[in-house]
Design goal:
By secondary structure, this protein is α+β, with helices and mostly antiparallel strands. It is 23% helix and 45% strand. The protein contains 2 helices and 5 strands; from the N terminus they run H-E-E-E-H-E-E.
């Protein structure tokens, strides 16, 4: 499973009673749509043994209603609960299943309102995932 597929599947276990579809790389135009987008940053360390350790960054974008102050408060509460969930998963070593061994998953940019207008806004959060795997031939 690719890293982005593993992260999407893992994120979908957050508040499983609320089914939410997470898209890959493109955020659709409807409210409550989500997407995980790979950032163009990767830090790699190659080992003599043939293993690599990589840290990649992914941004979760969520389009939410932001017309009323109450909506924005709810959005931030949801974002904070997602941040706490991610931190808890890292502490408990409950990581995404990927092709490799995950060592950590961390929030690098907390949940915040990015692009917005009077009706809806795009909130986002960036995570880093560090993993080791055998170097592919």
């Amino acid at each position: 499973m690719t890293v982005i597929q593993g992260i999407i599947k893992w994120l979908q276990t957050f508040q499983p009673s609320e089914s939410w579809k997470i898209n890959t790389d493109i955020l659709p135009a409807k409210i409550k749509d989500c997407a995980v987008i790979k950032e163009p940053i990767i830090n790699k360390k190659n080992f003599i043994s043939g293993k690599i350790r990589a840290t990649e960054h992914y941004t979760l974008m969520v389009r939410l209603d932001s017309q009323l102050d109450e909506s924005r408060i709810d959005n931030n509460e949801w974002g904070e609960s997602l941040e706490q969930w991610i931190e808890e998963q890292d502490r408990n070593k409950n990581y995404p299943e990927i092709d490799g061994i995950v060592q950590s998953i961390r929030i690098t940019t907390p949940f915040y309102m990015g692009i917005g207008d009077m009706q809806e806004s795009i909130y986002q959060l960036t995570i880093s995932i560090t993993y080791e795997r055998e170097k592919k031939a």
